[in-house]
Amino acid sequence: MADSIFVTRSSMPDLQEYVDEIKEIWDSHWLTNMGPKHKRLQSELKEYLGVEQLDMFTNGHMGLELSLQALGLPKGSEVITTPFTFASTTHAIVRNGLTPVFCDIDSSDFTMDTEKIEALVTDRTTAMLPVHVYGNLCNIEEMDRISRKYGLKIIYDAAHSFGEAYKDKGIGGYGDVSCFSFHATKVFHSIEGGAVCFHDDDFGKELYRLKNFGIKNEEIIDGVGANAKLNEFCAAMGICNLRHIEEEILKRKAVVERYRFHLDRIEGLQLNPIQENVKSNYAYFPVVFHEKLFGASRNEVYEALAADGINARKYFYPLTSSFQCFHGKFDTNQTPVAVHISKRVLTLPLYADLALADVDRICDIILGLQR
Ligand SMILES: *Cc1c(COP(=O)(O)O)cnc(C)c1O
């Protein structure tokens, strides 16, 4: 049997390129606390992402969690969000003492359904936390309109949308706050890491202090902060990976196009939509298996691939609203589309170095199950 194929594989610079990058860290003994590598990555990211303000964190989750804290939303207030996401999104809300209110998703692009948001707004609602899931962008204009109408903050979980643009503007520039993840499995990574883009200077200062224990200066600590600083070795990995990001995205595009060549227009298979005015990063390749039309269920496809050493993932199943830690707190009947999709979706392997011959083999296995 061929080697196992995982759903993703971290991209790596040449070893020598990384060694050259960390040489200065050895010489300077400056390992963390916003050193030269941190500063350099920060300014390169601002330029690449086309945003004016950006701070970096030890991981994407802490960026999200501290952003919610820095906004100062009243405890117990409600944040309208999606259950069709990674654990981090919902946990960031709950760990801030805020209440997630789950909105259903759009069946075609899997993002929060903007037509269902307004019915969920109450006098306790203070913010919305939508996700550009799989790199599919939310309906930004509608989000903006709703945010203005009800005076709600928008925090985008942009963990899947590094490098994407909407109408030629970097995606990090939308909303009050946008949070990226630089986890090893993401399109761009710094081993672990994350960034938050924002517009408001005071928010930025508060966010910076929260990632550094609430320290204002040597003698004044006026906030109960955490520690979420990105270290120099991670920043160095980010600097190396950013040099190659465009070619990485192009290689992903070739993989996605090969999948589409095989799986487009197959009855009962639903693929990601191609969104207008969007520069895509080809982050994920989800397929929704409509069993009655296709002939095989998501779980059957998952098992058939696994039997051949191919590890697809059931992203996002289960919904965060049905996690054991929230048992009895949320009613998933409120988000029927999210329930429906999460039972049928499978994310296929996708990374820059995935061989097109392997894509062919994966598609052969899937299409062999068609009845
Ligand atoms: C990866 C991810 C995060 C969290 O990022 P980390 O860097 O792993 O902490 C948050 N939200 C979504 C949707 C993600 O996929």
What is the helical fraction, as a range of percent? 25-40%
Kindly state the number of beta strands: 13
Domains (count): 2
For the record, the CATH class of the largest domain is Alpha Beta
Shape: globular
Name the poorly predicted regions: none
CA-to-CA gap between the ends?
Answer: 26 Å
Give the strand order, joined by hyphens, for the main sheet.
Answer: 1-9-8-5-4-2-3
**What is Rg?**
21 Å
The H-level CATH homologous superfamily of the largest domain, spelled out, is: Type I PLP-dependent aspartate aminotransferase-like (Major domain)
Could you report the average pLDDT, rounded to the nearest whole number?
A: 97
Instruction: Name the hetero compounds present.
Output: pyridoxal-5'-phosphate
Number of helices: 12
CATH hierarchy: architecture of the largest domain: 3-Layer(aba) Sandwich
Q: What fold name stands as the CATH topology of the largest domain?
A: Aspartate Aminotransferase, domain 2
Structural class: alpha/beta
How big a fraction of the residues is strand? 5-15%
